[in-house]
Specification:
The complex is a heterotetramer of chains A (about 260), B (about 450), C (about 575) and D (about 140).
Chain A: E1 9-10, H1 16-19, H2 24-28, E2 33-34, H3 41-44, E3 59-62, E4 69-70, E5 80-83, E6 99-102, E7 118-121, E8 144-147, E9 163-166, E10 179-185, E11 199-204, E12 216-225, E13 228-237, E14 245-246, E15 249-250, E16 253-258
Parallel strand pairs in A: 1-4, 3-5, 5-6, 6-7, 7-8, 8-9, 9-10, 10-11, 11-16
Antiparallel strand pairs in A: 1-2, 12-13, 13-16, 14-15
Chain B: E1 2-8, E2 20-25, E3 31-35, H1 39-47, E4 58-60, E5 66-68, H2 71-84, E6 88-92, H3 98-111, E7 114-117, H4 124-133, E8 134-138, H5 140-146, E9 149-153, H6 157-160, H7 164-169, E10 185-189, E11 202-204, H8 211-222, E12 230-231, E13 234-235, H9 236-247, E14 251-256, H10 258-261, H11 267-280, E15 285-290, H12 297-308, E16 314-315, E17 322-323, H13 330-335, E18 341-345, H14 349-352, H15 355-362, E19 366-369, H16 375-379, E20 382-384, E21 395-398, E22 404-407, H17 420-435
Parallel strand pairs in B: 6-7, 6-18, 9-10, 9-14, 10-11, 14-15, 18-19, 19-20
Antiparallel strand pairs in B: 1-2, 2-3, 4-5, 4-20, 7-16, 12-13, 16-17, 21-22
Helix pairs in contact in B: 2-17, 3-12, 3-17, 4-11, 8-9, 8-11
Chain C: E1 4-13, E2 18-28, E3 31-33, E4 41-44, E5 49-52, E6 54-59, H1 64-72, H2 99-108, E7 111-119, H3 124-132, E8 138-143, H4 149-156, H5 160-174, E9 180-182, H6 186-190, H7 210-224, E10 230-233, H8 243-251, E11 268-270, E12 278-279, E13 287-288, H9 290-299, E14 303-306, E15 314-319, H10 322-332, E16 336-341, E17 345-353, H11 359-374, E18 381-382, H12 396-404, H13 406-415, H14 419-425, H15 437-451, E19 469-472, H16 484-491, E20 495-498, E21 501-505, E22 508-509, E23 517-523, H17 528-540, H18 546-550, E24 560-566
Parallel strand pairs in C: 1-4, 1-5, 6-7, 7-8, 9-10, 10-11, 11-14, 14-18, 23-24
Antiparallel strand pairs in C: 1-2, 2-3, 5-19, 12-13, 15-17, 16-17, 19-20, 20-21, 21-22
The chains are: A mainly beta (about 260), B alpha/beta (about 450), C alpha/beta (about 575), D alpha/beta (about 140).
Chain lengths: ~260, ~450, ~575, ~140
């Protein structure tokens, strides 16, 4: 990273798909955006090494201060992306495959509408992790996200499939409107958890600040989650929300809280 | 001799009252009396005449003083600022007419700016909720003619929309509501016993920040399912009673305001309120409506939408329109340090943004187009006073229920003053020259 | 104004009965003329197809529910927004394009006139602001009358003359074009959460039936002698078995004759007939009623229809049929918007995905094609997608491909997941008819223009008519190698002229034409009774004053074109 | 004996604030209408002051001097109200949770009685915090 931008950079070309089959020189010619200007990657990054022939055999390592860089790994379908520092919005947004390793924090909208692949965040994740784009009812539908730190609000909104694991705590409104998928919170959850949830499963190892009234106690169960065997209190919800039936039986969302 | 102008539209709040009568001097230059308006509307019309009014553009000097400049110099500064900026923010638009907004959009398109209106700090989260689950609504006349259940949730029309209750929602006698207030049950949900709550048949004094839980509980109660003993500080029994009152109406309307859009959960509060409205339509007829603040914030959203496709927080920096509040919204753009020029019109972010979002305005080239002196003009490099829209010039506006009403001009602006639209056209034409556009 | 000569094209013009002969089309001062001087700019159309500009008879392209669709569907624009280029402003939107994109897309496909199908009168200012901001194409808007309190009250007492006077006032204050009826009575019932599913269901409180509303409005329409006929979206749209309600509605036109000076012959236009031609009792035994509907319409010359073709896209449904949208959101659980409009109407909006993998959607697709293929007279059946309800209007080239090529239809049928169901529930497999270019010109130009009463102005290439001309890269002399070539050719015109101004060249926008707003100005004798009624309703029940309701200044309709009607002798 | 208390702050419109912004934000009347904090009588008692005393309101995001008055729209113990405007916005929580909307309602604040601290005029208050010179 060189010539730090005055504003923010939109580096939506930094993905194995965009790099594939290009030499270092060609990669340096790819466009980035600073406000309404469109300079090249080469202006801000020193590009070393050529890409593989395809996205699948391309690995990108982003070094330096990328706190003000958005869209790293945007729409990537294969290959590997390693971000060594903390970075900004839309990491791995609309990704369908491949692997992203973010060693620092990532800001909001990471893995928006993710369809597949793997996103590992060693720091903290921002808001709307694995959520749907505004207005869309199709959120994260596949793939796996691991957050080693904490995650923000509205994670997994409109989630329909895939899995999010947060080792730390999550902020308000996790899994709102979810219609499938799995969320595992090793730490604590704030309030509004699973609000308007239609289907899907949430596991919380720590406390829940305030429980949604639409979650009805449904006894206790012995479960093994992520290698941890423990007793969980089971809740069905969100009772207030509409629910479909399968073989004549109403299907609810499931919330398990470790006792 | 004086003249009386009738059917005058009040350019203050989203209620957009259109039955004002204004008495003006024979030469149409002085505004003498205002009838039918609320105290705020009356003040708006009368203050437009104040003697100490600034009538020419002014540049802020280092020592804090102001230097008067010509409109042409103001046009030049504004056009140059927008031409040079990499990511200018053009904010406001809610207190001007749709014609000016339309010219503003052309300017934004040429300078590839971010454009946003006051929904940013008002009903922006409502728009997000509407995008998530829709909006069963109606026009205000439907409320007047049919509503027998009226719910004010997190809003206080007695203070913010003073004539709303008498024109549309509580007192008027409509086609199917011949007994006026007697035909209606009023429910107010508010953490305070507001002057609106004092009139309610039922006041649910919700614990501040727990509206989302209470709305969910009401949805559960409609289904007659299990509830905890108390939700949001309100006993389950009272929640079930309220649910029955809602269900028993023939035509219900939920009005909501800043109490829910600005409290934690934000868009989700509205989302849940809309879901509740949708549920109630399984039993009877219900609608829901945001109590829009500025008299033409709704119009700004409409014009943005048919021209760019999005109602607010539109980012044109890449040459095409993008939208995602949290990224392209004014507060985030300012606090995150994403913009390098500030253009404000028809609103006062200086007074109504959190201070951390105001400080950045003072650090970039900035223009404030506003008939008033405001905190925004106070921290902007250039202040361009203009004619009062809806008083000194007409133009189309949209009421809180999206009904368009063409504002009326009642008096002449002071000699030589431009309207928003006239000033913007000059800026657009100069900008086209600078950008070499056709 | 400059002169043009479009040389050696294969001209298809039903107005003059020209069926593809090589002819030159001369343009002068915005009109088609016999000949132009040697200085005229020559456009070489040899090996190309030349037709009049196409006429859209029914689309939702401007106004409150369209914009509500834009506002609440950011995902409809995700990654689809286009930058400013050349003369084009920014655009965006797949199923609900922005106003600028709407104008450009129509023009690029050779359309020069379009009708906004449902204008809520209270929102007329909004509709006209969007029309003003929709470049190039001439537009008109149909105010809705089928649930209007004045109409319900007058017709309850068979006061046709008062209804007519009210319609004349409404067309004038809203700058409206025609009498639109949507789910007559059912939308007023919806204000109480109810509906009218047959032509005999009484409307709550007003105690009148949909049948009485429809007959009364036909009579009022003919009393005035308006350019277009009563334009109806009947009750019970979209339900299995609804074709019976549709037939009941069509029968209401029996015995009525068109009375007007615009060459219009029908007294009823049935819109998006595909949605009204369903047999069966549930979604399981759902089947086509296209034969029953077209058999009736073929026999009854005082009716015209449009198709409402399903294009198998993700789209946004929007209609003044409020109860239907509520029913639809119950089926697909997608976001529901609704707006009830005081004293007048309502509207609903719900996104919908017509999936080729769902048998019902595939059958709907087939019905939309069966109807035009079963209609004997292409002058009475027009191509629409009821944009955006059955699909976006930008898919017209694909619909044209399906209509012109059995091969293209078979390819699609074979691609369906439930192919056998489509073949068993419809007759699409047996229909070998392929629409000719001449028939296409009837279905998209001469026909809709005649139905709208615009025969003297557009829809043809006769000298004296507006010079709206479309030139397609399609050579009728060459056999079609691949049906997709048809879609390509009709997607982007080689050249388009709008009232004599070239607006498209090689698929690019090169001019904005003189966009006009079409409306109908009816002179009627003074009717103090009706004026008193109007005044009373505003004082008591409307939420805005009559003066503000009637205010529709020049800034809303900068370039009006009024069709004058004199009903004082009626 | 006065003492500091913590309380949940919300902001919003009042009709007096509405009249004042149309009357002119440079005027003292704006300060009178919006440079205040409405408290429940029980909270005034907790604070140990009579109504109409100047107080410093401090949040994690800043502090401002306003006049503590007794609410007319109570009871609302535990909730304090400052009309929307520069005074409230000096201390509200700017967190938007990536929705674009600051958390104008629900900011925990501390009240400290400061009878002799002056309340600034609206425009000056904003100019001072932005480091802009006033006239």
């Amino acid at each position: 990273m060189k010539n730090p931008p005055a504003l923010y950079l939109e580096a939506d070309n930094v993905s194995p798909d965009a790099f594939a089959g290009k030499t270092a020189a060609q990669i340096a010619e790819l466009s980035v955006h600073e406000g309404n200007t469109t300079p090249t990657l080469g202006k801000y990054f020193e590009v070393k090494g050529d890409a593989g022939a395809t996205a699948a055999d391309t690995k990108i390592v982003v070094k330096g201060d990328v706190k003000r860089v958005k869209y790293l790994g945007f729409k990537m379908s294969a290959g590997e992306l390693v971000i060594e520092g903390t970075t900004d919005l839309y990491v791995g947004a609309w990704m369908t495959g491949g692997k992203i390793l973010a060693k620092g924090d990532v800001a909001a909208f990471a893995a928006t509408a993710m369809k597949g692949g793997e996103l590992v965040i060693e720091g903290n994740a921002g808001n709307y992790l694995g959520a749907a784009y505004r207005g869309d009812w199709r959120g994260m539908s596949g793939g796996k996200i691991l957050v080693k730190g904490d995650a923000g609000s509205d994670i997994g909104m409109y989630m329909t499939g895939g899995e999010i694991v947060v080792n730390g705590n999550v902020d308000v409104h996790a899994m709102t409107h979810a219609e499938g998928g799995k969320l595992i919170v090793k730490g604590n959850a704030k309030s509004k958890l699973g609000g308007q949830m239609v289907k899907g499963t949430i596991y919380v190892f720590g406390n829940i600040e305030v429980m949604m009234p639409g979650f009805k106690p449904n006894g206790e169960v012995e479960l093994e989650v992520e290698g941890t065997k423990a007793k969980f209190a089971h809740f069905l919800g969100d009772i207030g929300e509409r629910h479909g039936k399968s073989k004549g039986v109403v299907v609810y969302g499931n919330l398990y809280k470790k006792i | 001799m004086t003249k009386t102008v009738t059917d005058v539209i009040c350019p203050f709040c989203g209620t957009l009252c259109d039955d004002l009568e204004v008495v003006v001097s024979d030469d149409g230059k002085k505004l003498l009396e205002v009838y039918n308006a609320c105290v705020i509307g009356t003040e708006k019309f009368l203050h437009s005449q104040s003697a100490d009014r600034v009538t020419r553009p002014r540049m802020h000097q280092e020592d804090g003083s102001w230097k008067e400049v010509s409109y042409d110099e103001a046009v030049e500064y504004t056009a140059q600022m927008l031409a040079k900026a990499k990511k200018p923010l053009m904010y406001g638009w809610s207190s001007t007419n749709c014609e000016a907004q339309s010219v503003g959009n052309e300017i934004a398109e040429i300078s590839r700016a971010c454009c946003d209106n006051t929904a940013a700090v008002c009903h922006g989260t409502t728009l997000i909720a509407v995008q998530d689950i829709g909006l069963p609504t109606c026009t205000l006349g439907e409320v007047k003619n049919r509503a027998d259940r009226v719910i004010f949730w997190g809003c206080n029309p007695a203070h913010a929309h003073p004539r709303h209750m008498s024109r549309y929602s509580i007192f008027p006698r409509g086609f199917f509501t011949g007994k006026g207030q007697m035909s209606r049950k009023l429910i107010v949900v508010d953490p305070r016993t507001t002057d609106t709550a004092k009139m309610a048949d039922v006041h649910l004094q919700v614990e501040q920040g727990r509206d989302y839980e209470l709305l969910d509980a009401l949805r559960v109660a409609l289904k007659g399912e299990w509830l905890p003993d108390e939700v949001a500080g309100i006993p389950a029994e009272k929640i079930r009673e309220a649910a029955d009152v809602l269900k028993s109406g023939r035509f219900g309307i939920i009005f909501f305001g800043m109490g829910v859009t600005q409290s934690i959960s934000k868009n989700h509060n509205i989302d849940a309120a809309i879901a509740l409205t949708k549920d109630l339509n399984e039993y009877t007829k219900y609608s829901i409506m945001p109590m829009r603040g500025h008299y033409n914030v709704t119009g700004s959203g409409e014009v943005f939408a048919w021209q760019f496709g999005f109602p607010y927080a539109v980012d044109l920096s890449r040459g095409f329109a993008r939208y995602n509040p949290g990224d392209t919204s004014s507060i985030d753009l300012l606090t995150r340090g994403e913009i390098d020029a500030m253009f404000t019109i028809g609103s006062d972010p200086g007074a109504h943004f959190p201070i951390s979002a105001v400080k950045p305005i003072a650090n970039v080239p900035s223009v404030c187009i506003d008939p008033h002196l405001t905190p925004t003009s106070g921290v902007s490099k250039l202040h361009v006073p203009v004619a009062f829209n809806g008083v000194e010039c007409g133009g189309n506006c949209y009421r809180m229920d999206n009904v368009p009403i063409d504002c009326r001009k009642v008096v002449e602006p002071p000699e030589g003053m431009l309207t928003d639209e006239q000033f913007l056209i000059k800026v657009r034409d100069r900008l086209k020259q600078l950008k070499g556009a056709a | 104004m400059s002169e043009y000569l479009i040389k050696n094209g294969h001209v298809f013009d039903p107005v003059q009965g020209i069926k593809g002969d090589k002819k030159d089309i001369a343009i002068k001062d915005g009109k088609i003329v016999d000949k132009v001087g040697s200085g005229a700019k020559v456009i070489d159309a040899s090996g190309k197809t030349v037709m009049a500009g196409a006429v859209e008879i029914h689309a939702h392209i401007a106004g409150p529910k369209v914009n509500l669709g834009r506002i609440y569907r950011p995902e409809d624009k995700l990654f689809s927004c286009t930058p400013t280029h050349g003369m084009e402003r920014m655009g965006g939107g797949a199923s609900i394009p922005t106003t600028f994109k709407t104008g450009y897309e129509y023009a690029k496909m050779g359309y020069t006139t379009a009708m906004e199908a449902a204008m809520p009168p209270l929102f007329a200012r909004h509709v006209h602001e969007e029309i003003r901001d929709t470049p190039i194409i001439d537009e008109g808007a149909f105010p809705v009358f089928g649930n209007n309190w004045f109409v319900l009250e007058y017709l309850k007492n068979q006061e046709v003359e008062n209804t007519a006077a009210y319609i004349a006032w409404m067309l004038r204050v809203t700058k409206g074009y025609a009498v639109k009826v949507v789910n007559p009575g059912g939308t007023e019932a919806w204000a109480w959460g109810l509906n009218c599913l047959s032509v005999n269901d009484p409307v709550p409180y007003f105690d009148i039936t949909p049948a009485e509303i429809v007959k009364g409005l036909i009579e009022a329409n003919e009393y005035l002698g308006l350019p277009h006929s009563m334009h109806i979206h009947p009750n019970n749209l979209g339900n299995p078995g609804c074709y019976e309600t549709t037939l009941d509605t069509l029968k209401l036109a029996e015995g009525y004759k068109a009375k007007n000076t615009f060459g219009r012959e029908q007294v009823m236009h049935l819109t998006h007939s595909q949605f009204h031609s369903y047999k069966g009792t549930n979604w399981g035994d759902f089947e086509s009623g296209a034969k029953e509907i077209t058999d009736y319409v073929n026999k009854n010359k005082n009716i015209t229809i449009d198709t409402g073709n399903v294009t198998l896209d993700e789209t946004t449904t929007m209609t003044a049929d409020g109860p239907f949208e509520h029913h639809l959101t119950g089926l697909n659980h997608l976001k529901w918007a609704n707006c009830d409009v005081e004293l007048e109407t309502a509207a609903g909006v719900v996104p919908y995905i017509y999936s080729p993998n769902i048998s019902v959607c595939a059958i709907q697709w087939a019905i939309g094609l069966e109807i035009p293929l079963m209609m004997k007279d292409p002058m009475r059946c027009y191509i629409t997608t009821d944009h955006p309800n059955a699909g976006p209007f930008t898919r017209y080239p694909r619909v044209i491909k399906w209509l012109m090529s059995k091969k293209a239809r078979d390819t699609q049928v074979n691609a369906f997941k439930h192919k056998d169901k489509v073949l068993s529930q419809t007759s699409i497999g047996e229909l070998d008819r392929e629409i000719s270019l001449y028939e296409l010109a009837q279905m998209t130009r001469a026909g809709p223009a005649k139905s709208l009463g615009l025969t003297a102005i557009c829809g043809g290439l006769k000298p004296g008519m507006d010079a709206d001309v479309a030139v397609y890269n399609f050579n009728p002399d060459k056999p079609v190698a691949n049906p997709d070539d048809i879609e390509t050719a009709f997607s982007r015109c080689a050249a388009v002229f709008k009232s004599g101004v070239q607006v498209v060249s090689n698929g690019e926008i090169v001019g904005t034409g003189n966009k006009r707003t079409l409306w109908v100005n009816v002179k009627v004798n003074d009717n103090p009774q009706v004026m008193r009624d109007i005044n009373e309703k505003f004082v008591k029940y409307y939420s805005m004053t009559q003066n503000n309701y009637e205010a529709l200044g020049h800034h809303f309709v900068p370039n009006p074109f009024a069709l004058e009607v004199d009903a004082t002798q009626a | 004996m006065t003492k500091n208390i913590t309380i949940n702050l919300i902001s919003g419109r009042t009709i007096q604030q509405g009249v004042a912004i149309e009357g002119g934000k440079e005027k003292a009347n704006y300060r009178t209408a919006a440079g205040i904090i409405e408290l429940d009588p029980t909270d005034l008692k907790r604070l140990g002051v009579w109504k109409n005393t100047n107080v410093r309101v401090t949040s994690p995001y800043g502090n401002v001097i306003v006049k503590a008055i007794e609410t007319t729209q109570g009871p609302h113990p535990g909730v304090a109200f400052i009309p929307m405007g520069p005074w409230a916005n000096s201390i509200v929580d700017p967190n938007t949770y990536s929705t674009g909307m600051p958390t104008f309602k629900g900011t925990p604040v501390t009240l400290e009685v400061t009878p002799n601290e002056p309340i600034m005029l609206g425009i000056q208050l904003v100019q001072k915090q932005c480091g802009v010179k006033s006239e």
